[in-house]
Amino acid sequence: MNRLLAAAATGASVLLLSACSGGTVDQGDLEDQVKSSLTETVGQAPKDIDCPDELEAEEGATTTCVLTADDDSTIDVEVEVTSVDGDRVDLDIQVADEVN
After folding, report:
1. What's the pLDDT tens digit per position in 64-97?
2. Signal peptide location in the record (predicted)?
3. DSSP structural state of residue 11
4. How many beta carbons lie within 10 A of that of residue 65, not counting itself?
5. What's the CA gap between 18 and 6, in Å, rounded?
6. pLDDT (0 to 100) of residue 16
7. What secondary structure does DSSP assign to 26-80, as a single string?
8. What are the residue boundaries of the structural domains of the chain, listed by start?
């Protein structure tokens, strides 16, 4: 298994995002923040992060993004909104234990 996937499977991260108007986190911003957080956690950037849509900026909202590693293996990344304070959104990012 790719080092990134193995290491990321054991880590979680909390970060802050600016929420866009309308109470959502933009899809592109979400992908950038997930990639940045995972890169910081494991010291290696994933080849790609693909989130299916924008994320509602409300506590408990979730989405599943897909991480693509350098060897083209993929793994799900669960993202959950843990709190919202004005235009700030706290996220919990969990990488699945199994490669797709």
Report:
1. 999 998 899 999 999 998 888 877 888 888 888 7
2. 1-19
3. -
4. 23
5. 30
6. 55
7. -HHHHHHHHHHHHHHHHSS--SEEE-SS-EE-STT-EEEEEEE-TTS-EEEEEEE
8. 3-99
